[in-house]
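tool=predict chain=A
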Amino acid sequence: MTLIKSISGIRGTIGGKPAEGLNPLSIVKFTAAYATFIRTHTRATTRRIVVGRDARISGEMVKSVVTGTLTGMGFDVVDIGMATTPTTELAVRTEKACGGIILTASHNPKQWNALKLLNEDGEFLTADDGREVLALAESEDFTFAEIDSLGKIIVDNRYRERHIESVLNLERVDVEAIRSAHFRVAIDCVNSVGGIVLPDLLYALGVKELFKLHCNPHGNFSHNPEPLPEHLTEIANLMTQAKADVGFVVDPDVDRLAIVCENGQLFGEEYTLVAVSDYILSHTPGPTVSNLSSSRALRDVTQQYGERYHAAAVGEVNVVAKMKETGAVIGGEGNGGVIYPASHYGRDALVGIALFLTHLAHKKMTVSELRASYPPYFISKQKVELTPDIDVDAMLEKVKETFAANEITDIDGVKIDFPDKWVHLRKSNTEPIIRIYSEAHTMPEAEALGEELIRIIRSFTKADH
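tool=predict ok
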């Protein structure tokens, strides 16, 4: 059993002893701590908290515990049922709620679940807020409501439709162009909530021919739910068999979007944001933002429009903060996460699909031709195991000194930018490792750069002994 408490929420495998897994006792404690935090800090005038969940087998059990705890803390719960993460974020704003909880372990396998915490803006809690919730949970410093102050549960199953309507109403979504293009579209929704919402979205956008994989939301994921190339062989084969124009793959909570070309080749998760940003920048001038480990292709495309690119620390909350600070018109993460402020400040695959189809319809290209129009980059992901005696901060300082002649960014680990490539080193928050991401114009170059940094790090650790 596994239970991981972090500033972004609590996640774990279902079952186990109280302190060992995600079970009713651990859920009650963490939910009560969150409710106590909200009671103390919210600016909202309602006593409502929105709860949405993905299609995981454990979802109904976890929801029952969460909603019961929230009403026991004196809050009214707006239960929106099975809903995507971005749908839940939008519902918090619409309800003028004081917070929200999304029950999803995102791309983790079916034995996992999690509570992801939102503030009254429908955005993830900051690091400081998350630390306060963790401290409240540890101290159990919360008080449940007395009989006349108990909350109630309000069931509202209309938010999926409202979310789709909000996407259709975006100025840069051209439904008529999409309808006129007569796209044949394939989707893989990995047996979660995307199987409910994506078909409705695509039909509303005017797509007439839809080829569906794993759209029954029973929670027994048909393959590993993280949308990586090795997990997407079925839809790659379907593309050529069905003669589909484009394929879309989402994770269980539908905040990440992977795209498949008409020839079955993957568009590349890093390039989901690049393509959507290309479209937005062609109509709306302004800055862009992604995290330090995302592809340089976004910077290149942004600069082609004469606009400025900004890098944020890894993590959606950090990207959102940088987007607000810089007034970015589009941003996100290289894992297929598109954040479009004209809709809301959260990764949203529905928005990504609508904007990408509009872009494709206007370009009158195949998806593979569109992909070939962007700067070619390849990312290598490697790691170094850490031992307890390694001083990571000191080692990163040595790396900075070694590469001082290059452009260095140290807001999140150390990133070294070279003229035609980069490498990013950062300590994992969940494992005793240093992650080393490197990018270049070919995969061998990217891998060689990562391996060079690994050799340098190991030489430092040997010198210290």
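The chain is about 40% helix and 20% strand. Residues 178 and 361 are 6 Å apart (CA to CA).
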